[in-house]
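Progress note, sequence design subtask.
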């Protein structure tokens, strides 16, 4: 427990870690899509967030049609947002809702276990193997 606290203090991760996933309208061309990704990343930074990673997962088929569209361009952003920033997350979500080119978005706040997994995958450490469940007759 104390090791986690010292590790968090050493890496400067006092602020909570968030994951933002959003889907961009597929009818936009590549330049427009890149511009939206840059604008969202800049908006996060302007509102006090420290963007750690931006992963563009590309065009993927949706599970169900959204606005009569079957595909969307997926982007996943990991960022830290200080608790002291009043209304920071609400402002970010409001901007995503207002943007007509973003079809859906989801913001997750990582708990301690999710953050450890995120840090392990970023550092390239091998994650512990979980034994398969035992089959009983």
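Output:
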């Amino acid at each position: 427990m104390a090791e986690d606290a010292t590790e968090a203090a050493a890496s400067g991760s006092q602020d909570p870690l968030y994951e933002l996933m959003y889907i961009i309208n597929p009818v936009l061309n590549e330049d427009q899509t890149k511009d939206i990704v840059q604008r969202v990343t800049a908006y996060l930074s302007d509102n006090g967030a420290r963007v750690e990673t931006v992963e563009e997962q590309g065009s993927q088929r949706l599970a169900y049609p959204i606005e009569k569209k079957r595909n969307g361009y997926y982007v996943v952003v990991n960022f830290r947002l200080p608790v002291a920033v009043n209304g920071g997350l609400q402002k970010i979500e409001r901007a995503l809702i207002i943007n007509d080119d973003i079809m859906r978005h989801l913001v997750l706040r990582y708990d301690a276990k999710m953050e450890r997994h995120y840090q392990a995958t970023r550092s390239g450490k091998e994650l512990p193997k979980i034994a398969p469940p035992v089959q009983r007759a």
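Residues 1-11 have pLDDT under 50 and may be disordered. Work on this subtask will continue into the next period as scheduled.
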